[in-house]
User: Which sequence fits this backbone?
């Protein structure tokens, strides 16, 4: 990482100082406050944490590239056959082209800037003890450790080696403290150990998370009391941490630990994260809950979400500008099954094109304030993934139980149960293609399994040959040049 970036972060922490404690969406960035002004007050600490969450919505982070755009193009989600289309270079893995290099350098930089802000926050809590009540300090620390693991893990999934094949052949930096100089690059397996250690620490600090007793707390408290720690599904809560543990253990190849974490979430979080009622998706045409919001363990609340939708997916865009799936590929993904709630709610045929367009993030209407729970929401970790992880972990040892987990998701997506004897791993792959459109998870599934051939999004029948050269995005040149 460039020395200038490191000095900037250590010096100013990119903190946010002007917000109410209740609504982190109102905060504005300020970069001129001294450390003591930030961490010596409860509001200062809270706003510093809010600023970290806000940064997740950056377009070079989960506001676009790591959910809607570049990362989905790497999974061949869109029809991009011509070089004048916005994601053509990504779907052809042209990592040495300057615009692509610049994009991934920005993705890298935004992530590590936020990681260093997290470290500044954790350091500030140690330098200024007693500013927060102990229970609040525990929550702030737990969320911070979890966010640090979350961001590092996604950098590994993008820039690291292929699990089980070349994980240790590629090295990345793990920043677990405030540093004025670049830390050494470390092998992927050691990097994963640090991710898991941070998640373990986060789980310990979040053991008293109010979500356990009170749920997500999406409405205001009855007495009108302002509570900074409401809206737990927009924060790294205990259940999200355990779910991220399941995801990370699975990526590391530890199926048993992944299974234990996933089943813990299924058993303990389901009361607060129920399956979305089909009526909320299908019977409210002006405001369908297309993101299945009740199932999101952790997501962002992005006030720019619908602006990104209009720039990327709106049916009024010209064909060479809009991101869409080829009709035949779309039918293949959803197996031409109009009963699938994910298909018939998120893909619509408008008047401007002969193909269906992606409507999942179109701004919903308002029906008696019923959209409050899902407006501006984009899911980053959801309950269904826990069922897929459990099913995959059990596919060889207990296929009956694995099939049960898989059929639970299918039932709640309007599909019939699969019969015994199906290829469970193949069915899980099909589910990843259906479930996580616009959420950035499919490419990581392909990479984790080192899938050698995937459907070419720009062709009806051809496949893309995949290997280490397509699955591993090169480290930014600025990172490498700085270390030479």
Assistant:
């Amino acid at each position: 990482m460039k020395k200038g970036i490191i000095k900037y972060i250590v010096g100013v922490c990119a903190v946010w100082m002007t917000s109410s404690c209740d609504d982190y969406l109102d905060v504005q960035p300020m970069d001129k406050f001294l450390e003591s002004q930030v961490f010596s007050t409860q509001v200062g600490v809270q706003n510093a944490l809010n600023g970290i969450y806000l940064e997740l919505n950056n377009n070079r982070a989960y506001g676009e590239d790591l959910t809607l755009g570049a990362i989905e193009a790497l999974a061949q989600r869109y029809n991009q056959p011509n070089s004048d289309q916005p994601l053509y270079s990504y779907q052809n893995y042209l990592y040495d082209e300057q615009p692509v290099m610049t994009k991934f350098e920005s993705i890298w930089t935004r992530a590590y800037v936020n990681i260093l802000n997290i470290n500044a926050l954790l350091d500030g809590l140690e330098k200024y003890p007693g500013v927060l009540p102990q229970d609040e300090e525990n929550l702030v620390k737990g969320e911070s450790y979890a966010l640090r693991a979350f961001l590092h893990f996604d950098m590994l999934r993008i820039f690291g080696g292929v699990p089980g094949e070349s994980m240790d052949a590629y090295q990345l930096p793990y920043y677990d403290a405030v540093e004025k100089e670049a830390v050494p690059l470390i092998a992927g397996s050691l990097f994963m150990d640090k991710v898991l250690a941070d998640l373990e620490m986060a789980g310990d600090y979040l053991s008293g998370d109010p979500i356990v007793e009170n749920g997500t707390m999406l409405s205001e408290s009855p007495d009108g009391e302002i509570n900074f720690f409401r809206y737990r599904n927009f924060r790294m809560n205990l259940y999200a941490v355990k779910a991220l543990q399941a995801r990370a253990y699975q990526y590391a190849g530890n199926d048993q630990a992944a299974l234990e974490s996933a089943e813990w979430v299924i058993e303990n979080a389901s009361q607060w994260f129920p399956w979305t009622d089909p009526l909320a998706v299908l019977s409210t045409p002006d405001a369908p809950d297309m993101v299945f919001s009740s199932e999101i363990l952790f997501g962002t609340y992005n006030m720019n979400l619908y602006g990104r939708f209009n720039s990327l997916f709106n049916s009024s865009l010209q064909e060479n500008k809009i991101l869409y799936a080829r009709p035949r590929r779309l039918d293949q993904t959803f197996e031409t099954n109009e009963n699938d709630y994910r298909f018939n709610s998120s893909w619509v045929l408008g008047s401007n094109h002969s193909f269906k367009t992606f409507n999942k993030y179109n701004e919903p209407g308002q029906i008696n304030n019923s959209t409050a729970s899902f407006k501006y929401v984009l899911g980053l970790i959801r309950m269904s993934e826990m069922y897929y992880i459990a099913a995959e972990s059990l596919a060889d040892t207990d296929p009956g139980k694995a099939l049960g987990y898989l059929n639970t998701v299918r039932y709640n997506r309007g599909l019939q149960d699969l019969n015994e004897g199906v290829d469970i791993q193949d069915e899980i792959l099909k589910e990843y293609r259906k479930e996580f459109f616009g959420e950035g998870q499919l490419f990581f599934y392909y990479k984790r399994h080192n899938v050698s051939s995937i459907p070419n999004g720009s062709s009806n029948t051809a496949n893309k040959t995949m290997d280490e050269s397509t699955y591993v995005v090169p480290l930014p040149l600025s990172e490498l040049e700085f270390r030479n």
